[in-house]
């Protein structure tokens, strides 16, 4: 541990007092998972030490700062916890209520379609909740937000948009509407960027939460993006109308959403994805003008005027082909950067890119 991970005697006394007062105690939703730890262990899913029945804080009796102890890290969500399989793979366990939900059914159906354009999070395992027969636990890979770390180069955005459009066209071609497309429900497999792994809660740190991590470049180490959370999704019978009802979902800016008037679920998905591209890319970065036409088509107010997902895939392929090859390695630059800072960062980026290409030629 680094020297700053150790506390002075006075700080140790304060830490012991805050520990006694319950500052690091399990939260109510953490206790729910703690109670399931033995049953999960029997199925081959190990929870972090914090959620073992006999857990005691590892910093007790030491002068170590709890911030540098893995078992001080709390769980952020009630319905999802990280676990480790016997092979060391970190996975996500999601608790799902059986009544009125088709999430497991739809997610398993999508997983069964092993095709390259399938960008739906795969289901690795499904089994009954060991303590609640009304719930099911679904196991998936542990992913990280699609924009953590942030995009750096134009080609990274092009790859992201390509994968998201292909994934949407894939879902729609199999008669499924997502109905909750938003930034929170698009994630990526971060393992190419963090080959040594990362902590599932403190994503910028090592598994033991001691070392701060620096990600590899996704330009040189491409990642795969996934749609997650099919809790609101619908699967239609072949040839059946694609009408849905409900002003549900995280994106409340889809104009036709209604709890009483049926609307086309496919068209609503297209608007929601276009809105994601607009808010998370167009409004945040420079050098993404090539998205303007695509987003304009996707966000048209009249649902009937929005092209279907397969046409959007073709449209963006044409847009992509018009981009100069060199532009893929242009630095995006945040629109929140001051002008002087942007000029400096762009200059540094060009220099590093030239150095990187020279190294490849030499090697």
UniProtKB/TrEMBL annotation:
Residues 32-363 form the Protein kinase domain. The keyword Nucleotide-binding applies. Transmembrane segments: none annotated. GO terms for biological process: intracellular signal transduction. CDD domains: PKc. Keywords: ATP-binding, Nucleotide-binding. This is Protein kinase domain-containing protein.
